[in-house]
Amino acid sequence: MNKSIKLRLIVMNIIQWAVWGSYLTSMGSYLASVGLATRIGIFYSMQGIVSIFMPTLMGIVADKYIPAQKLLGFCHGIAGAAMCAAGFYGMTAGTEVSFGILFSLYAVSVAFYMPTIALSNSVAYNILEKNGFDTVKDFPPIRVFGTVGFILAMLFVNFMTNGAGVQYQHSYNQFFVSGILGLLMLVYCFTLPNCPCSAVSSEKQTFSDRFGLDAFRLFKDRQMAIFFIFSMLLGVALQITNGFANPFISHFQEVPEFAQTWGARNANALISISQISETLGILLIPIAMRLFGIKKVMLIAMFAWVLRFGLFGTGDTGAGVWMLILSMIVYGVAFDFFNISGSLYVNKRTSSAIQNSAQGLFMLMTNGIGATIGTLSAQAVVNHFVYNSANPSWSTAWFIFAAYALVVAILFMILFKEPKTDEKIA
What we know:
74% of the residues lie in helices and 0% in strands. Helix 1 runs antiparallel to helix 6, helix 5 (68-93) runs antiparallel to helix 6 (99-130) and helix 5 (68-93) runs antiparallel to helix 8.
């Protein structure tokens, strides 16, 4: 039975992340191909904007009204249907794509997809704990299969071509792939074990209790407040390479010296090394958390982001391709040691009554406020130094991002203190 539970959670994670991997790293290339290059950041910032309120809202609903696994399915169903509609619109519009229509369909999809990241974690934690597993030890090996799903989806859209020979990574077909997987997830979620809502007290509830604002009490704890603030500051970095790595690598096709290099022609496949590295990074988390604690693990992630951006600034798809590959390898630590470890830390420090809401709050700070600021700021930087410049310089943009990550790391090193106990808050 225990092995069966783990297998079912593995399948859930594969589909969960394949939905996102179908378009997350390649959408920027498609947008550039239909004349929307200067608005790539707006599309990616929408993921952040909806994450400001949707994960928290859905966390409240899961805590109090609808079992988490069912809510996870409903969210995927709506997101998948909207993404299929975006693909259909792209197919019918051709090169005459209207920003307003495509963006609206995309916005609906990500509004319901982004809460599923925290919800899927909560579902996994709930099911594992009910079956006697240790989440810190047993969740990472399950979550690693989510990255496998992400990689498979990336490679699929990289190598698949339409009737005209255009790779899915440069076309609307990536939206169809994501949408179909989302609808599959809707069905699958209703086969998962039940994750019941918290029992509703018969006592009179306050406004805070009723609407799940309890999680914000975590800010009363100084170190949790600092943790969440720096989660937001590091969240600024999360979507930058997702939005701009593919257009950056693909642009080498326009440089005669690099035009025929494999990396320039297969940007998504090159970027997939990041996710392969991510699988290894996830498996290292239990060891790293035990040996180093949350502060050092987060610091490792922050300095890894410095390297991630800096290597992009110095690499190319020719003789310097090793720098791009090294940047992809570093990404596994940069992403996992922040995102997964942070989620586990929040789960460990919060009581069961607000764990779904607390995960939503973590998403709000990272993929919400942080990612929104990051993608919009990154678009402004890229527009200035690349798209609107007489002498485009991707390197300058990447070095600016690296400098930002370095400042955040130094401040975190000074201000955050490792908690002395694992006592749960709230």
